[in-house]
Amino acid sequence: QCNKIDALDTFHRQVFEEPTKIGIIGSGCSVSTEPTASISHYYNLVQVSCIASSPAFRDRQLFPRYFQLLPTDASLAITYMGLIEFYQWKRVAIIVQMENLFTVAMDELKVLLNDNSIEYSETELVIDEAGVNGGPPNSTIVNLDSVFDESSRIFIISTYEPLAREIICEAYRKGYRYPRHLFFMIPWYVNGWWRFEADSYGCTVAEREDTLEYSMTVMNLPFAAYLNMSTTTDTGHEGTDNGRGMTVREYFDKVEEYLERPPLNVTLYDDVAPVCYDAMWTLALALNNTITEFETNISLSDLAYEAGNMPNRNETFRMENFTYQNDVVMETMFKHLEDTDFLGVSGDVTFNEVGIRRVTQYLILQFRKNSSKRIVNEEIGVWSTNASLVYTKNSTEETTWPFGIPYDGVSVVIVINTVHASLTSIMIIFSTVGILFSVACLVFNFYFRNQTLIRLSSPNLNYLIGSGAILLYLAIIVTVLPADTAVFSSVVCNLRVWLTGFGYSLCYGTILVKMWRVYYIFSNPSTLKKANLHDWMLAIMVLCFVILDLVMLVIFSLVEGLRGNLRAERVLDKEASSTTTGEQGRIKEFYVYVCDSLAWDIFLGIFYGYKAFLQICGLFLAFATRKVKVKGLDDAKWIAGTIYITSIVLAITILALYTLNDFVNRHTAVFTGGLLIGTTFIMAFVFASKMYALYKDPEGKSVFDRTRPSDRPQASNPSDGVERVVG
């Protein structure tokens, strides 16, 4: 009845009633066995149990003369751990009923999980009312709504049957079933335990079976593995053939004959009879060996008589003379129980140092639907403590997991997003056209470099502008490349910064110094000073901008050198939402690589702050030279327009760098679009305007014409002054 009080009452009645008992087989379950096993040694009785399995019985201080034929539930922890490692699970969830029978076993499992760096969560069930007289709880779970850790997929359930049924029904309501979820159930439930209380817990038997399908049970290797092997218990007794014991199959034949029951499904552990049969043989063999030792050891017999307060008869001690004061008999039987080693109908019977049956192999069972669409618990493999899982009964990994091995948590598939193909194609096409246009402009500049109009625009400096534009177009192409690895993304990040920095300094820096020269010409009346502003001087100024960029980039590289310079970090793509796909409920999460480093924000602030300062200088010069109307210096008007546009583009680009970094397509579109617009406007204003002017005035006759008088003092001969300045 699994009741402590009834067990103690029965124990004392049996002890004090005739005849005198020599040993005990029992009690029933762990709850009723615990109180009897803790006091039986006071009566000098050994006790053998065939049903109890609590890990608490390993305590030799509390249960000094107790032996157990079922392995403890704690021994299953080793197999659980082995299966977890075999299937490469890294996270499990434990659902445990707060009873010593279950908590001790799960504590053992938690130690193994910690030792193997396996993450786990634990839910302790809260029951609203305990069972009658300390028996197993029979009421419902208070915290049922929170019993499942929603981030886990592999659940190890350690409860009595009623709560297991309630948990499975709750799992059904939540839609927890294979292939997304997996349950490990207690092995010693009665056969078909899920079919009991069919109208309870808000789900039908069929719904429970749907939920349980493909879940597992782990148990010690049962008698099914020994069907055709001969036991060593009946050897030499009447009715045996050739001195061998009966086979396990013969045992079941006799059970069928005696009980007149249909053939047993011996692949299921649906009866404790084989274990209890071996428990009787265990005690019988120990008793037989004790009698034999008394027969061969007169000194031991004398001690037994003395321990029983009986006169020394100098003869073999007879077991019918045993009394509850005779500790010699108990210790002798205890010694022979420790030495137990035989093949019984339930398998090899030996005990470890604390009296628990040794089990080195475990049977792995899986809930599957048979041809009648009913759930049965079928053998799929054997787990050996010194080996691994071996599939049996024609089972394979494919038949065990038809939709794949369940994931140990929310299955996340990482998808790396790159720049959209259409954006990449558009930008590469436009940038390629821009590069070709830049090359054409440089050829034009070289071919017409001696024309007055082109000579006044400083053709040598124009080479720098064209070269810078090509670098900026290349930066656009590099930025839109589909970088889907961290290494390639890091290369792209660094190339983009270097190409953009040098391209901007060559392109915009040259425009700035040319603008400054125009400002200098028309704001300084000293002709002597004007005569010193040659192209090579301005080129040196541009080179200073480039060197400053180089210094900043080198310093940044040295600061970040130990961390791989500017690197790509994987972050969640805010432009794409996670999606759930497949039978196993995989969640696709979309990530992008972004440029990042510990000093990245500081570097951006300094780098683009410096560029912004140059833009401000350019805006000032553009405003200061707005009244210059000499056609030969038509650059001033176009360059001013370029400065205005590039200033706006630069502001938008910097803003995009800080706000859209995690939005790969938007960030790339704004950044590359800004570079494309700014660079193209520069090339159009600097070169296209000259092409048109040269087409309209090939001889350059009106190059020094004014559109209106200037208010500023001018050189007596504008042509002479300007040509000396730019020559």
Give the SSE map:
Layout: H1 4-16, E1 23-25, H2 30-37, E2 46-49, E3 66-68, H3 76-86, E4 91-97, H4 100-115, E5 119-125, E6 154-158, H5 161-174, E7 182-185, H6 205-212, E8 216-220, H7 248-259, H8 273-296, H9 298-307, H10 327-338, E9 341-344, E10 347-350, E11 361-369, E12 375-384, E13 389-391, H11 397-400, E14 412-416, H12 421-447, H13 452-456, H14 459-479, H15 486-523, H16 527-530, H17 535-559, E15 567-572, E16 579-581, E17 586-596, H18 600-624, H19 635-659, H20 664-696, H21 718-726
Write up this protein:
This protein is an alpha/beta fold. The chain folds into 3 domains: 4-70 and 225-350, Response regulator (Rossmann fold); 73-221 and 361-410, Rossmann fold (3-Layer(aba) Sandwich), CATH 3.40.50.2300; 414-714 and 720-724, Rhodopsin 7-helix transmembrane proteins (Rhopdopsin 7-helix transmembrane proteins). Helices cover 47% and strands 13% of the residues. It contains 21 helices and 17 strands. The longest helix has 38 residues, at 486-523. The relative contact order is 0.07. The model is unreliable at 131-138, 235-244, 264-270, 561-565 and 707-727 (pLDDT under 50). Pfam families: 7tm_3, ANF_receptor. This is Gamma-aminobutyric acid type B receptor subunit 1.
